[in-house]
Structure formats: C-alpha cells, structure tokens
Amino acid sequence: MFVYHDFNQLELPNNKLFVSSPRSLKMVRLLSHSEIDFVKYDECIEKSMQGKVYAMSWYLDAVSPDWSAYVVGDYDVVMPVPLKRKFGLVYALQPQFCQQLGIFSKSWLSKLQARELVGKLPFLYRLCFNSGNIDMCAGKTARPNYVLDLSADYELLNASFSLQCRRNVKKAKTFVQRVAEISRDEYLSFLCENAGQWMGKVQIPVLTRLIDNAISAGCAEFVAVRDVQDNVLAAVFFIRWGGRLYYLSPVSSEKGREFQSMTFLLNDIVERNANSSLLIDFEGSAIESIRNFYEGFGAKDEPYPMLEKNMWIAKILGK
Questions:
Q1: Each residue of 79-102: pLDDT tens digit?
Q2: Partners of 126 in the beta sheet?
Q3: Cα dihedral angle (259, 265, 148, 56), rounded to 10 degrees?
Q4: DSSP secondary structure string for all residues of 274-315
Q5: What are the backbone dihedrals phi and psi of residue 79, each rounded to the nearest 5 degrees, phi first?
Q6: How many CB atoms lie within 10 A of CB 232?
Q7: What is the pLDDT of residues 7-36, one digit of tens each?
Q8: Coil, strand or helix: which one is 246?
Q9: Do the bridges between strand 68-72 and strand 77-81 make them parallel or antiparallel, or are there none, so unpaired?
Q10: Using CA atoms, how far apart are residues 134 and 210, in angstroms rounded to an integer?
Q11: For position 21, what pLDDT does the model report?
Q12: Is the pTM of this model over 0.85?
C-alpha cells in the first residue's frame, strides 16, 4: 500500500483523477492534549487512508497520557506526537504497546507535504510511523510487522501453513484442550503469573489502562485455551478495530507451551474467521523465533518505518 507520491496527478483504481496539491500544507497547528477536539480527531483516524488503532485517542490516552497532535485544517490530516519534557528539552519517543503512529490523512498527500509535517517534529525524536507512510520514509529503517489475511477458505489458509506449523497444530489436537473466553481479571492474573520475566512493573499498569480503555471503546476481546480441569494454558488480549484483530500480549504457561496451546488458539481463530475480510495483525517481530511462528501461519510482512533524530541525546536524558 502506498499513500505518498511525487506526481501531481494520480490515476486512482476507479479511474478518477485525483489532483494533489504540490503546495505546502496550510493551517498546521500543534495542539496540546487539552486543545484537541477528540471527536474530529478520531473521525480523521477512522476515515484516514492509513488508519491504525494505535492512533485513536482512547488508545493514546492509555499509553501516553498528555499526548499532543499536529493538525492540518479542520482535522483533514493529523500527526499524533507523544511529547515529553526533561531538562528543558522537548522530545518525542514511541510509547510502550504502541507500534505505529505517524501521519494520518483523509486524502493523498505529496511527499513534500508529508516531509513538511515531519520537519515540525522536535529536535529529538524516535518514532515509528505507520505502514501507510512507508513510501514517504524511503531509506529509513523499516521494521517488520506480520499480517494474516483471512479472506480465503480454511483449506487454502491451512495449505499456506508451514510444515512445522501443521505439525504443531496436529500435536496440539492430541491434547484435551479447548478455546474459550476469559475475563479481564483472569487474563491479567494469568499474565502476571506467567509473564513476569518480560512484563515488568511499569508495563502492567500501562497495559491495564489500555485494556480498560479498549473495553470502554467496545474493542477488547480476551481468548484463552483451557485444559480438561478448566485451567488456563494460554491467553491473548485482542483489539478488534478497523477490520483487524490486533494480537496483543499473548502469554502461555509452561504446560501451555508443552501442549502448543497458542498454536491451537490461533488455528481456531483462523478456522472460525476464514472467508472473512478480517486481518490478524501480529505486531512484529524482528526476533527470528517469533517471526518464524507468525510466518508459519502464512502471515506476510507489512513493514513500517522508524524515524529518529539526535537520539544520542537520549542517552544523556536517560530516555
């Protein structure tokens, strides 16, 4: 998918001609959190060509309270920015649990216009833009994100599984386990009990706020795998938004890893949602073992760019 283009005239799929203004953007404002019209802002994200749930106001309120936004016109283009201040410096860093931000627009922008917005970022930043900004950020560091399209029949989807994935599905089915819903509280309890090695004291409160905001927004889903004694073996917090099922904070117990319970859970999700317009968004990863796990289900890379400037100063600030 590309959104940015150098040409002034672009031929769209419906054969209508879209005229892109080569001129600079007008009415660009940096709004503090208290100045943002959240109704208009969220409408821009929802109607944008690059829409990602990470940029919704309720999501940012959870992971980066007091975030700001650059706004063009009457919220025709927005660029949320998680600004921080330290030692008199203003800087922007990507929040936890927030994979992609960047520029969101209701219509196409030229590269010149997009770069003008990026040029308004503070002196110091490290931000991940969204996959729809990839053309504008050519030459920048690209990070992987794996997405699985569920529009085909399950038989075709299963045929695209790797040999190892099909073996793991077969192994998982030899154990007595089932997929079921799990409550918010039971999920968080299971997460804290089994993810202590990678989920620290700082992350848990942020994730809890995100879960509660997603519940309020009607986007949260909690799915688990249980054994014959009804013990939880694996669990995932999903956000269903914009035709995507975001795979957030999966966790398995030791027994769940032995039973291939997460593979069992994902295979069930794929089977139940086959022939739909849904995409499973796996959120990464550059770690080989995790990447292989996602690719094993037939997921394809949908890269997104990372932009940074003067990050050596972050070491002095201690981030």
A1: 999 998 887 788 899 999 999 999
A2: 93, 308
A3: -130
A4: TTSS-EEE-----SHHHHHHHHHTT-EE--EEEEEESTHHHH
A5: -140, 95
A6: 23
A7: 232 232 332 222 234 345 668 899 999 999
A8: strand
A9: antiparallel
A10: 27
A11: 42
A12: yes
